[in-house]
Design brief:
With 276 residues, the protein is an alpha+beta fold. It has helices spanning 12-35, 42-55, 122-144, 150-162, 259-264, and strands at residues 59-60, 72-76, 79-81, 95-104, 107-116, 167-168, 174-176, 183-187, 204-207, 210-212, 218-220, 227-229, 235-237, 240-245, 248-251. The chain has one domain: Creatinase/methionine aminopeptidase superfamily (Creatine Amidinohydrolase). The structure holds 2-amino-4-trifluoromethylsulfanyl-butyric acid and cobalt (II) ion. Cobalt (II) ion is lined by residues 110, 175, 206, 208, 239.
Length: 276
């Protein structure tokens, strides 16, 4: 029964192993972010991520997942998530969301970012900014709170504070992660009465809010993957893999472990000290 499935709690050695996967994902996304520009195809971005992942001796987790044909998902403008890389040429002002997963020694990392290509519409930049802020507020809720549902509360609070009435996509949610990309528990991005599981050390989750400039409702295109907003409004997605520890959280897919963004929220990161 959903919500009652067994959660895989990780010990410090396992979290350290997941950090290795997280850093590969961080490197792949950084390379894509640096390279992306109008005129490139989404397949070009896929090739960049694939080469970083294979160069690290890691494996892509999306490729072949229920038959998924890419290493990354590239979702442009009204595409929310699961856009398949291909011959689409990126245009000035596009909102581009890139999602990537990698496996190292059997452990998974999963993360995503959104960016607006120049010349950006300020309203698109605000959307991307709010999505990133929602992600970090959700991560902070993991560090401070006692129940998983604090993530959804935090995302809703950021959207309300923005005053822009963004849609919060509900059909797709964050998830537990570890020896598989998707594990229990679900991590909702909206407020609910169910408070969810207690936040215990060793819980590792991917937090991944998706916001739109219009309706929160989505359709799936005929390719059976690409998720688009029903009203054509532009959407953004941001994601990190996060480990919960006794003293806080460690953001496994952020190069700095989340130190900068969590520090700005008055929180300290809680890495596993790797004894050399
Ligand atoms: N990375 C997505 C998630 O965040 C899953 C991608 S589905 C795939 O959960 F088929 F593209 F792998
Ligand atoms: Co995910």
């Amino acid at each position: 029964m959903l919500g009652r499935e067994r959660i895989e709690y990780k010990d410090d050695a396992q979290i350290t192993a997941m950090r290795a996967a997280g850093l590969v994902v961080a490197d792949a996304l950084a390379a894509v972010r640096t390279a992306m520009a109008p005129g490139m195809t989404t397949a070009d971005l896929d090739a960049i991520a694939a080469s970083v992942i294979s160069g690290a001796g890691a494996a892509p987790s999306f490729l072949g997942y229920y038959g998924y044909p890419g290493t990354i998902c590239v979702s442009v403008n009204d595409e929310v998530v699961h856009g398949i890389p291909g011959e689409r040429v990126l245009a000035p002002g596009d909102v581009v969301s890139v999602d990537c997963g990698a496996i190292v020694a059997g452990w998974h990392g999963d993360a995503a970012f959104s960016a607006v290509l120049p010349d950006a519409d300020p309203d698109d930049l605000a959307l991307v900014e709010a999505t990133e802020q929602a992600l970090w507020a959700g991560i902070a809720a993991l560090a401070k709170g006692d129940r998983l549902a604090g993530v959804g509360d935090a995302v809703e609070d950021v959207v309300a504070a923005s005053g822009r009435g963004y849609g919060i996509v509900q059909e797709y949610v964050g998830h537990g992660i570890g020896r598989a990309m998707h594990q229990p528990p679900d991590v909702l991005n909206y407020r609910t009465r169910e408070r969810g599981p207690r936040l215990r050390p060793g819980l590792c989750v991917a937090v991944e809010p998706m916001l739109t400039r219009g309706s929160r409702h989505t359709n799936i295109l005929a390719d059976d993957w690409t998720v688009v907003t029903v009203d054509g409004s532009r959407a953004a997605h941001a994601e990190h893999t996060v480990a919960i520890r006794e003293s806080g959280v460690w953001v496994l897919t952020a190069h700095d472990g989340g130190a900068e963004r969590l520090g700005a929220l008055g929180l300290q990161v809680a890495p596993v000290d790797v004894v050399g």
